């Protein structure tokens, strides 16, 4: 049962998927409760008094680990298959997932708006030094042979999955004839659901002199850490009991979002504003710092730290000791102890820093229904690496033309990320439903890596017909 749960969590967290990216509606006045995840100050900048995201799901992924092979319709059977990418290059993966549950935004006055809700979040980073992998390899010595020039070998994997509760407040600081300045903050408390960290460093080996090509492992540093709440899962107990024990042994963490928005009013319609949250604007500029914080976990009882190699440990011995008979981490640890100089278990707690980032968003209204948005997302790191394992988001630049009203919209996000990939996204809004994809290009051309992801949200808000008419509050000219 424990192995099945590990696999389930890994599959969940390594789905295609930076968190909170409902990219199409970023900067829009109609983003509502989805927008305050990207900038808490935007909670005040909506023409609707309230809205609730009953359900939202988003995944986003960038990797060169997988190869996508498409067979055209001229073949007997059209298929879409993914393989681990062979070849000699640095491997990397950056993905994230979020599930939004009853995220609520409420304007309590013309000066203030609040928000609250619950999210399940997950982020993963993986990277390695250059190494060669072929799916035809059948022996450790074969792997050593094709990577003789790639030493020392290095790799790292970090994942954090957490459940968070948040509260948001946005307040108007300035409302002059030409400019509005809003500020917002979101405070978040979380429970660490699953954490995993693995680092391989300084793996070096040498070839034993003929008569046969056998390689001897000379040194290695390895650590692997997982969250201890996984140890609480007992196959002899009921699912509800296990779930309660799992949640009860999860550790608490915290994070914060802060943001500001500056809105330059449309001077042609400046007298037509019905209230301070329903205005036309020419430019809107937002700056936010997101996910400054961490999730905390207890070390799992089988988490290990390994260094050094015993004499005469070669590829043949490694193939014998690490074969198909290893079915769990305890057995793996037993085998590791027989080949290394030092093996130590971890105790206490560990923390994984969230993928903190700066977001700069500029929105320009061209007509009543047509706007264009530009957003720059940059990774940031404020928590010390000596105390936290850090997750990092990819930098990205996105330009999004949109045609949008209160009930319907069409969006075309165009993104260049920090790894040089160009994505063409697409999204539509129809009433309460928002449906989008981060990258539609793999559907139209043969692209080797299945990067992208998508999002789905169901947002309810008051009907225009049910809203009470409000008298115009026209300012006297200065």
Overview of this protein structure:
By secondary structure, the chain is mainly beta. The protein has one domain (2-460): Porin (Beta Barrel). Helices cover 9% and strands 50% of the residues. It has 5 helices and 23 strands. It has helices spanning 2-13, 140-146, 239-248, 315-321, 329-337; strands at 50-63, 66-70, 80-84, 87-107, 112-133, 153-175, 179-207, 215-226, 252-265, 281-298, 304-309, 340-345, 349-353, 357-365, 370-379, 389-390, 396-404, 408-411, 414-417, 422-424, 426-430, 433-437, 452-460. The strands form 2 sheets. The protein has a 14-stranded antiparallel β-barrel. The relative contact order is 0.17. Mean pLDDT is 85; it is low at 1-19, 272-278 and 465-474.
Give the CATH class: Mainly Beta
Q: What's the number of domains?
A: 1
Query: Count of helices?
Result: 5
Which H/E pattern describes the elements? HEEEEEHEEEHEEEHHEEEEEEEEEEEE
CATH names the topology as Porin
Mean pLDDT: 85
Major β-sheet strand ordering: 1-4-5-6-7-9-10-14-15-17-18-21-22-23
Query: In which range does the helix fraction lie?
Result: under 10%
Span between termini: 72 Å
The count of β-strands is: 23
Radius of gyration: 26 Å
Please name the CATH architecture. Answer: Beta Barrel
Residue runs with pLDDT of under 50 for 5 or more positions: 1-19, 272-278, 465-474
Category from helices, strands and their pairing: mainly beta
Fraction of residues in β-strands:
over 45%
Shape: elongated
Biggest sheet character: 14 strands, antiparallel, barrel
């Amino acid at each position: 049962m424990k192995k099945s749960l590990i696999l389930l969590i890994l599959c969940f967290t390594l789905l295609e998927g930076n968190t909170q990216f409902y990219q199409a509606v970023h900067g829009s006045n109609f983003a509502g409760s989805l927008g305050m995840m990207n900038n808490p100050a935007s909670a005040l900048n909506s023409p609707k008094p309230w809205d609730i995201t009953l359900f939202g799901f988003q995944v986003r992924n960038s990797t060169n680990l997988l190869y996508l092979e498409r067979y055209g319709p001229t073949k007997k059977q059209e298929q879409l298959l993914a393989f681990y990418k062979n070849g000699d290059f640095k491997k990397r993966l950056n993905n994230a997932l979020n599930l939004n549950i009853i995220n609520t935004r409420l304007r309590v006055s013309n000066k203030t708006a609040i928000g609250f809700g619950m999210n399940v979040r997950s982020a993963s980073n993986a990277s390695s030094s250059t190494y060669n992998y072929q799916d035809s390899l059948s022996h450790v010595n074969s792997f050593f042979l094709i990577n003789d020039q790639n030493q020392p070998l290095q790799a790292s994997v970090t994942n954090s999955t957490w459940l968070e509760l948040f509260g948001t407040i946005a307040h108007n600081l300035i409302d002059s004839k030409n400019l509005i300045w809003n500020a917002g903050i979101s405070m978040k408390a979380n429970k660490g659901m699953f954490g995993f960290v693995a680092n391989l460093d300084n793996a070096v080996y040498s070839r034993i002199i003929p008569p046969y090509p056998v390689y001897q492992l000379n040194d290695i540093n390895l650590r692997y850490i997982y969250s201890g709440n996984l140890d609480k899962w007992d196959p002899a107990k009921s699912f509800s009991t296990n779930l309660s024990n799992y949640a009860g042994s999860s550790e608490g963490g915290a994070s914060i979002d802060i943001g500001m928005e500056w809105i330059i009013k449309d001077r042609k319609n400046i007298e037509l504003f019905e209230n301070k949250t329903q205005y036309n604007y020419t430019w809107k500029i937002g700056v936010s710092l997101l996910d400054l914080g961490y999730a905390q976990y207890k070390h799992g009882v089988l988490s290990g730290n390994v260094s050094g190699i015993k004499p005469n440990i070669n590829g043949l011995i490694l193939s014998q000791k690490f074969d198909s008979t290893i079915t769990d981490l305890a057995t793996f640890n037993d085998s590791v102890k027989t080949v290394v100089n030092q093996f130590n278990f971890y105790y206490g707690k560990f923390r994984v820093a969230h993928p903190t980032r700066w977001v700069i968003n500029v929105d320009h209204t061209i007509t009543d229904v047509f706007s264009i948005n530009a957003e720059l997302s940059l990774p940031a790191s404020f928590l010390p690496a000596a105390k936290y394992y850090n997750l990092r988001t990819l930098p990205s630049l996105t330009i999004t033309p949109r045609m949008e009203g209160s009930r319907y919209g069409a969006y075309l996000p165009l993104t260049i990320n920090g790894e040089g990939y160009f994505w063409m996204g697409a999204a539509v809004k129809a009433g309460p439903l928002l449906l989008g994809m981060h990258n539609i290009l793999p559907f139209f051309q043969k692209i080797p890596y299945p990067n992208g992801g998508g999002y789905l949200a169901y947002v309810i808000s008051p009907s225009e017909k049910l809203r009470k008419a409000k008298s115009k509050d026209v300012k006297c000219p200065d």
